[in-house]
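Hello Y.,

Per our agreement to keep a running log of every chain we model this quarter, I'm adding this entry. I've kept the format consistent with earlier entries: sequence first, then predicted structure.
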Amino acid sequence: MDNDIEKVLYSRDEIAGAAKRLGKELTRDYAGRQPLVISVLKGAILFTVDVLKEFDVYADIDFVDVSSYHGGTESSGKVDLVREISSDIKGRDIILVEDIIDTGRTLKYLIQLLEEKGAHDVKVCTLLDKPEGRVVDVKADYVGFNVPNEFVVGYGLDYNELYRNLPYVGILKPSVYQK
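Predicted structure for the entry above:
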């Protein structure tokens, strides 16, 4: 898999540092509260686990699965709900954990869904933010790294369900997906 990577952007240690920093920020901001942490499957699961290890607050966890890439390298523009949240979120403080914010469509869809279900407050924590890719106006409240407008994989992010298990985030060589 390493041979398919053009350049490593964020090492295992840099990612661990970002998770620790964000966990401490969340601990400070949510002291005395019991938020519901919702991890966006499949990509955000590794990041969610690492942030939660640094989050010293009582919290519940749930998962939601959405799809917009459908195996490609660009968002299809359509967001499909694959797995619904199982928790009652009415009146809850929500921390939505994402792997990457690119176009913003998925994030906008999820925030609207949570608000429609009666969430008290929705904050977004993301490993990667790609502002250059944005087509809708959304933003994260907690950001690990701003990422260039490249197709990245690793540490949960995939291409065609592969590369999620790389311990770093890197730019995938175009030759891999332009076959």
